[in-house]
Amino acid sequence: MSINLQALSAQLLVGLINGSFYALLSLGLAVIFGMLNIINFAHGAVYMMGAFAAYFLLNIAGIGYWPALILAPLAVGLFGMVMERTMLKWIANLDHLYGLLLTFGLALIIQGVFQNYFGSSGLPYAIPDALKGGMNLGFMFLPIYRGWVVIFSLIVCIATWFLIERTRLGAYLRAATENPTLVRAFGINVPLMITLTYGLGVGLAALAGVLSAPINQVRPLMGADLIIVVFAVVVIGGMGSIMGSIITGFALGIIEGLTKYFYPEASNTVVFVLMVLVLLVKPSGLTGRAA
Amino acid sequence: MKKAVSTSLLGLALMMSASSLAFAQDKTAKIGVLNDQSGLYADVTGVGSTLAAQMAVEDSGLAAKGWKIDVVVGDHQNKPDIGVNIARQWFDRDKVDVIVDVPTSSVGLAVNNVVKEKNGVYLNSGSGTSDLSNAQCSPNTIHWAYDTYQLANGTGSAMVKSGGDTWFFLTADYAFGTALERDTTNAVTAMGGKVLGSVRPPLNTADFSSFLLQAQTSKAKVIGLANAGGDTINSIKQASEFGIIKGGQKLAGLLMFISDVHALGLPVAQGLSFTETFYWDLNDGTRSFSKRFQERMKNKAMPTTVQAGVYSSLIHYFKTLDAMGGNSHDGLKIVDKMKATPTDDIIFGKGTIQPNGRKLHPAYLFEVKKPEESKGPWDYYKLVATIPADQAFTPLDKSSCPLLKK
Fold first, then answer.
1. What is the rounded CA–CA span in Å between residue B63 and residue B57?
2. How far is CA A182 from CA A37, A166, A187, B52, in A?
3. Does residue A247 fall inside a structural domain?
4. What total number of domains does chain A contain?
């Protein structure tokens, strides 16, 4: 196969765009796992709910894309907090497996309900007017919306990392994970912090959902298709590592993009092959601490 | 001694005739609707096909004649192994007589073998691959609603005629996609066109941008989408995002269903042309069926070609059972009788079934209306041309079906 440099750079850019979604989603997972020790299998379902929230806001309340970018994650985040308070809280001290099973079951129920009412083909959501069209970069035609997705998600990722690793609030949070009893003794409301953290993680997934609504159809199974890949990203990056999941997200998007160019048939599996390789060499993931 | 033998022979004969009498009076039938209930083809087939089967049972009028007909449903999740397991269980344990629908060609072909082995009846409306009436044809199978040859011929020839003589394919990487690409390539080259290349994304891909970029750089005039359902929706939507249509390249949706157009919305789908064998607004018959269907669907969707095909195929099956006076549960015999009887229903009108198991009816070249031309939801298609039944499908002398070489 002759390598066309133009096409190759285009694929790299497209990979970066997909990487943005992986990064946003795996970041949310990493936050939840790192702080709450819950393997949140409902992550794909809340991502889908974010996209549906944007669709409802537009078609029922007439609220457009920009407010939805804030409102949808808030609404879905709130839903997540209710979920944490009413269900996840009770199994916080049990084995990881229970959280995994509970959230997986919840995901199936949520997706089933949406599919029952909206079918599998999904609903259309238009690109906001300000981001319509595209520009010619010479080597490819870049839709402006996709460029926006990369930049915006990069900002959100870095902001989240900063919040958790560099602020006082983040320090409390990390301390609360290490030793909740001690942090509580300092007069900090740990259960509330945990609920808010879960809300944050879920909100991040919903935000990714809103971002993806104009690109993909708003479909009940949009999250189910993505979540397995995102879990692979988290495992490669190292469970619970914030920076690791961001970098791995973008990197895997690019690797997948290259696979689509060189050997498209394998593009759905390349991430898992990498996962196996990484687990063989470094079982705790690229940036993970050994358990 | 002689008398004793003749008496017992008489007894035997009486017994045999009594048992064959019981045979003829067996007025039960069990229908298995096997399809994708939850994945990317759920809107094209799914619960809509189940409803179509139930409507066929009701409309057949067999219940009034003392028949007892059951409908069971299975979800094959687009996986051949699951489909085969369900089919085996249906024949072995649940005594299912006929399997209908079965989308996803890889599953459709796998189930084809099981039905033949178990001597059942297989009325496939969901799979696209024309192999079902060619290399892999079976005496127990009728391929009902549409196939890749008909799609390729209809859309491929029409596009080349209107100047689209260079093609690039975006092909779903499984039996259906490759069959559709092969059949379309044949149609395009037969008309003097040229295929510049193809790329094969896996089934159920969310992001097509990489593949669309490759199609864009190929500079082909037509990008043929040899995929279906959710894959087609995503590739069309993303093609418009990447400015492919504005750049002068045309998209050919080789297999489009009305559910896809509905999901895309007219602003994105307008101007697409493709071939279908059914549209709800074709004539009084299709309209009356579709309106009744729509009222009973939870999401108020109009029937797709596949769902209408399930209805039509069962109506013919029930007519045949009625004419035979009972259910012999002998798949070969029933399918032979079905082939010998001309078809006539409100979906496809009058038609015939070829010896290779291919059901014949007209195909239609449609174009998607502009938003301002549409009178409301589901008013989506403009009829461009009608391809008569005898030209729409593989000509019998070109069919590679072994059943024809007797």
1. 8
2. 18, 21, 9, 64
3. no
4. 1
Chain B interface mutation, best of A17, A121, A148, highest count of B Cβ atoms under 10 Å: A121
Q: At what angle are helices B105-117 and B175-190 packed, to 10 degrees?
A: 110
pLDDT digits (tens, 9 = 90+) for A174-232: 888 888 888 888 888 988 988 999 999 999 999 999 999 998 889 898 898 788 889 99
Q: Find the residue in B nearest to A217 (Cα).
A: B234
Q: What angle do CA B110, B113, B119 make, to 5 degrees?
A: 140
Q: For residue A122, what is the nearest residue in chain B, using CA coordinates?
A: B263
How close A216 gets to chain B, by Cα (Å)?
6
Mean pLDDT (chain B) is 91
Q: Cβ separation of A126 and B205 shorter than 8 Å? A: no
> Pseudo-torsion of CA B318, B324, B329, B331, nearest 10°?
-80
Interchain pair B200, A145: CB under 8 A: no
Within 8 A of A17 by CB-CB distance, chain B residues are: 209
Q: Measured between alpha carbons, how far is B288 from B22 in angstroms, rounded to an integer?
A: 38
pLDDT per position as a tens digit, B318-375: 999 999 999 999 999 999 999 999 999 999 999 999 999 999 999 999 999 999 999 9
Chain B CB contacts of A264 under 8 Å are: 173, 199-202, 210-211
ipTM of this complex: 0.79
Q: Which helix (H) or strand (E) holds B198?
A: strand B194-199
Q: Of the ranges A124-138, A166-180, B5-19, B95-109, which one carries the lowest mean pLDDT score? A: B5-19
Residue A14: domain span: 5-222
Contact B205 A268 (CB under 8 A): yes
How far is B251 from B216, CA to CA, in rounded Å?
11
| Virtual torsion, Cα A60, A65, A67, A70, nearest 10 deg | 110
Considering only alpha carbons, which residue of chain B is nearest residue A11?
B210
What chain B holds in terms of domains, given with CATH numbers, is: 29-146+284-361 (3.40.50.2300), 149-281+363-392 (3.40.50.2300)
Q: Give the predicted TM-score (pTM) of the model.
A: 0.81
Residue A168 lies in a domain: yes
**For residue B15, pLDDT beyond 70:** no
Residues of B in contact with A141 (CB under 8 A): 216, 242-243, 247
Residue A237 lies in a domain: no
Selecting from A17, A124, A141 the residue whose C-beta is nearest the C-beta of B263 gives A124
Q: What is the pLDDT of residue A118?
A: 85
Residue A138 covered by a domain: yes
